[in-house]
Design a protein that fits this description.
Helices cover 73% and strands 1% of the residues. It is built from 16 helices and two strands. It has a two-stranded antiparallel sheet with strand order 1-2. It is globular and about 50 Å long. It starts with a helix and ends with a helix. The protein binds geranylgeranyl diphosphate (GRG). The site of geranylgeranyl diphosphate has 17 residues, from helix 4, helix 8 and helix 11. Geranylgeranyl diphosphate (GRG) is lined by residues 43-44, 46, 76, 79-80, 82-83, 88, 95, 153-154, 157, 180-181, 217, 220.
């Protein structure tokens, strides 16, 4: 099967698992509806797929990384809902649909994000219990919690908000994105390595994923300038409108493309140490050349 087929197969596995996860009985219909609305609106599912790919590449069973990978997808979706709120980026289109606060209302969007975050950790603990409190599952769970909190994604978001309308340096931009975007991408890959029980190679997984995270964010910035709303499922030109420092603003479009290529090249040098099936390499290239 070619890469596109393999990717689609993995996206289907993730989507089936997420659908099953959201069979929440007993909660008010409105909150479950709002959780499903954002979670099942599409999305590339790269975080759970990275967890599965690293796990598989290191000799584990990719299905073992699926439950924690999907918990990360819930955290990612909550961050998108909250990031789109009027108090943050105030966006009205996400994953090709009106954002949660537009479709429902602001209070429901806040609560849907909160509910996804809480449900993610409820599910993580269930996975730990189901695996007899195995230490690698506990370590992987700790990794996810740390990456999504003040030391990771939320910390990065705070720096992002504080930096709006200001000039920041390349080092500051890289630091902000290592937290805001990178921490969760790194945690996804590390979860794959930890679940595969390959502690000795986690340093390489970390290095691979931090390079991938930077490349991913640079491409995100480039797509905000050159991308197509229809394909991206979100409005373009938002960074400029909000006077954010981006890679494109700092070094220009052509240099940003070179930078994305360079970080991807560094990630690719490491991907073959993590996976001899070639899937991770193809996934890394796909993320550089994506249009959405
Ligand atoms: C509000 C708690 C809180 C955190 C916000 C991650 C984040 C921090 C905000 C998301 C907004 C954003 C544009 C982040 C930069 C890159 C990024 C994470 C893009 C979206 O990820 P994709 O491309 O989206 O994987 P899909 O829809 O494919 O899942």
């Amino acid at each position: 099967m070619n890469f596109t087929g393999q990717l689609k197969e993995k996206q289907d596995i993730v989507n089936d698992y997420l659908k099953e996860m959201l069979q929440i009985k007993g909660a008010p219909d409105r909150i479950v509806e709002a959780m499903k609305y954002s979670l099942m609106a599409g999305g590339k599912r790269i975080r759970p797929i990275l967890a599965m790919a690293v796990c598989n590449g290191l000799g584990g069973n990719e299905r073992d990384a699926l439950p924690l990978g999907c918990s990360i997808e819930l955290i990612h979706t909550y961050s998108l809902i909250h990031d789109d709120l009027p108090a943050m980026d105030n966006d009205d289109l996400r994953r090709g649909r009106p954002t949660s606060h537009v479709m429902f209302d602001e209070a429901t969007a806040i609560l849907a994000g909160d509910a996804l975050l809480n449900y993610s950790f409820e599910h993580i603990l269930k996975v730990v219990i189901d695996n007899n409190y195995a230490s690698n599952y506990i370590r992987a769970s700790h990794m996810i919690a740390k990456a999504s909190g003040a030391l990771g994604m939320i910390g990065g978001q705070v720096i992002d908000i504080q930096s709006e309308g200001k000039h920041i340096s390349m080092d500051e931009l890289l630091y902000m994105h290592s937290k805001k975007t990178g921490a969760i991408i790194e945690a996804s890959c590390l979860v794959g390595g930890i679940i595969a029980n390959k502690e000795d190679i986690l340093g390489t997984v970390m290095e691979y994923s931090s390079n991938l995270g930077v490349a991913f964010q640079i491409v995100d910035d480039i797509l905000d300038c050159t991308g197509d709303t229809e394909k991206l499922g979100k409005k373009v030109g938002r960074d400029e409108k909000k006077d954010k420092t981006t890679f494109v603003k700092l070094v220009g479009l052509e240099e940003s493309k070179k930078l994305a290529f360079e970080y991807t090249r560094k990630a690719l040098q490491l991907s073959n140490k993590l996976d001899n099936t070639g899937f991770l390499e193809q996934l890394t290239n796909y993320l550089l050349n994506r249009e959405s």
